[in-house]
What we know:
- This protein is an all-alpha fold.
- The protein has a single domain, classed as Helix Hairpins, CATH 1.10.287.
- It contains 3 helices and no strands.
- It has helices at residues 2-20, 25-47, 72-103.
Amino acid sequence: MTLILSLVVGTLFAGAVYLMLRRSVVKLILGLILLSHGVNLLIFLMGDGLRRGEPAFVDSVTGAVSANAADPLIQALILTAIVISFGLITFIMSLAYRANQAVQSDDLDDMTLTDKL
């Protein structure tokens, strides 16, 4: 299962790079979204992989965590990365909207001159 997840991460990265190299702003934003999903899966894969575990609670009697407990650090990192990527994509979409209003084009080559803004 780790091999399949590695292939999915590689495919997401390849698709993201392909889309970010296009000339359209919309494709650039879609590439950034794919890249953020690929990074989230990569963090998940590097951290714990795919294994079933118990919740990471401390036992009230012994005060120890189970040996089969899932690592909560990976979950916290991925949740933080999701929130940050959502904010970044929202900001980039608002900038793209404003640039589209100013330049009246979706092509990145048309946005080279700043005199129109």
